[in-house]
Specification:
about 350 residues, Immunoglobulin-like, five-stranded mixed β-sheet, about 20% strand
Length: about 350
């Protein structure tokens, strides 16, 4: 064998060996283990990207679901609040037209609210708000219940001769509306807002709702005034309204109490006070409540006495005598609080109360 043949044979062996190494490492010079690791990394990255994409889609779907739900709730409460506003306007201006249309309007309110209850029941809440949704529906049902009872209560009260008894029935039904507002606020609105906050959703708000804009309309005193207007003709609860305490005298001494400094009075088992009230408004007020509250040393619970001024015309002064409070002699001051009204429609209540420091001897 010649030298050239040996050299060719050696080169052939080197080429064969190189090809063998290439087959073992792969076309890119990578070992099988490296290739497996690269494939695994690629799969992991793909899974993460897919997972994040799915999560983003699910989150977007949830937000849209929440928004659609609260939009539906908002539609119902807006219409329900509108009923409450119209009812409140009627109560604040019970004129001749209101009296003639009262029965029909209350029936109309009842029918509308019953329909809203059915709409509320038909709303499908997200799973996260199922419990709160039950309270939302309940608040709408309570409003319907209040309207259902208000119509006969109003009609019976108008026919009754005793306004206090009729007013108590009307006030009871009106208080139901206030309870519906409490239910909505405490068990639907607040928990709903909290859940949205926990999920860091800031562009969705739980709708707020208030059926009875002025809580004073639910008081028995307001009901008495409303009934007086409905029975008495076209006089309206409009214009300027307001009463004020003019003076407070202790009887039988005749001493006029002062809010500045201490007042000395003789202790008694049956104290008597004469409260003079002024009507500073533009309308006659009926059944104006006047209250006394006495907090004595050693008696943390105040003693209370109430009375009513039947009617008081604009600019008129009237005096009511209240008795029944008791006080023992003491070196420690007692506090007498006197309050007149407020009457329906009264905006300024700063002069409705007076507080007097008394030393009983």
């Amino acid at each position: 064998m010649s030298f050239f043949e040996d050299d060719e044979e050696q080169q052939l062996e080197e080429v064969t060996e190189a090809r063998s190494r290439t087959r073992k490492r792969g076309p890119s010079g990578q070992s099988p283990l490296v290739r497996v690791l690269l494939i695994l990394v690629a799969v992991i990255v793909l899974v993460l990207i897919t997972s994040l994409g799915i999560k983003s889609c699910l989150n977007k779907k949830k937000v849209n679901e929440y928004r659609e739900y609260f939009d539906q709730v908002g539609t119902v409460v807006t219409e329900s609040d509108a009923i409450g506003k119209e009812l409140s306007d009627m109560m604040q201006k019970p004129d001749e037209n209101v009296r003639q249309a009262l029965e029909g309007k209350l029936a109309e309110f009842q029918q509308k609210q019953d329909q809203l209850v059915e709409q509320a029941k038909a709303i499908k809440p997200p799973d996260e708000f199922k419990q709160e949704n039950e309270w939302f529906v309940a608040s709408m049902q309570v409003r319907s219940r209040g309207l259902n009872g208000l119509q006969p209560a109003m009609l019976n009260a108008i026919e009754a001769t005793d306004n206090q008894i009729g007013a108590a029935q009307v006030s009871h039904e009106m208080l139901i509306f206030l309870s519906s507002d409490v239910i909505y606020d405490e068990f639907f609105y607040r928990p709903g807002q909290e859940k949205l906050k926990e999920e860091d959703i800031t562009d969705i708000k739980v709708p707020q709702s208030k059926f009875l804009a002025d809580p004073a309309l639910a008081s028995q005193q307001s009901a008495v005034t409303i009934l007086e207007r409905l029975k008495g003709g076209t006089e309206q609860v409009s214009g300027l309204h307001g009463v004020a305490i003019s003076s407070v005298k202790a009887s039988p001494s005749g001493m006029t109490l002062s809010t500045d400094g201490e007042n000395s009075l003789k202790a008694s088992d049956s104290l008597t006070f004469e409260v003079e009230v002024e009507n500073q408004g533009e309308a006659t007020e009926n059944d104006v409540l006047v209250s006394l509250s006495l907090t004595s040393p050693g008696q943390p619970t105040p003693q209370k006495v109430d009375g009513y001024i039947d009617t008081i015309a604009p600019g008129e002064f009237k005096t009511i005598e209240l008795t029944g409070l008791a006080a023992e002699a003491s070196n420690q001051p007692a506090l007498l609080r006197v309050e007149a009204g407020p009457v329906p429609g009264e905006a300024n209540t700063q002069n409705n109360t007076g507080e007097f420091t008394i030393i009983f001897s």
